[in-house]
Target: Heat shock protein family protein
Amino acid sequence: MTTVVLLLIVLQSVMSQNLYELLEINKEANEADVKRAFRKLSLKYHPDKNPGSEEAADKFKQINRAYEILTDKDKRQVYDQQGLEGLERLERGGDNRQKGPNAKAEVHVSLEDLYLGTTRDMSITRNVYCPKCRGTGAKDGKTKQCPKCKGQGITMQKVQVGFGMQMQMQVQCDQCGGRGQVNQANCGHCRGRKVVNDVKSLNIVIEKGMKDGDEIVFQKEAEQIPDMIPGDVIFTVKQSSHNRFKRVGDNLFYDLKISLEEALLGFSKRITHLDGHLVEVSSKSDEVIQPFSWKVITGEGMPKRNMYSEFGDLHVKMIIEFPKTLNEKQKQLIDQILQA
Model:
């Protein structure tokens, strides 16, 4: 017998009973309340304490099943909004609810943030399932048969199909939304809207080596819409331009200004990196630096994401600053050097 079949058999045994009533808790109970109630009842109805009692054994299975459902966030949402029938569909073939829209925003960071890694705390305002009725819109979660469709979830509607001809078609009941049940009374907290306004604080982790355009995803943290899977909150990394470094992939690029004298006779300079450490760039005394030539400093680029011990390279472009004017003596000296 497959696991799904076994689950359905146990599920059918609790079909006639409210899972919250089964665990002797109210609909507002949090996960800690559910666990506390389960421990108490499982001790009471455990087969070892009730040898030979089929009633206790059956009750033990029921409270275990109720505990499994009410401590699983997704299953509990489906149960609260679609009842055990919706949960049975979930057990048979997965969650048949459509996914709600994603919420998107940008998080602005500096190049230093992407080099060192950082965090941001951001708050979002969204609708969430009412904590009092858990998204049912009904006071105490209590419903009654829909008076319009008589619990069928569908009604018959006459449709014009041709000149003087009509036919009847089954359509979803517009009063109960196809559920066959309506609220006995609306929840006083959400006034039957099923959702309330909520402010959620999210801690955004900017990992070392992240790039402009990377996405940080908080799954199922977007707007909560009844009978839909919550969408994701997606933050897109937006890096501000830097006044000294330019990033391409995992490499950094830097323009270094040197004098004509340094280009001809050699130099040694230090570049202050993004985290404050100094990187030495130099040339030998017998090396003539050509304008716009490059020096590559291995391992001094950006950290590679998820491989923090590995870095790209630092590419340094030589910007030679020529003198704006020369006096006669300087011209003569240069002429002598070039003719030598």
In short: Confidence is low (pLDDT under 50) at residues 3-16. Residues 143-183 form one domain. The CA atoms of residues 90 and 164 lie 44 Å apart.
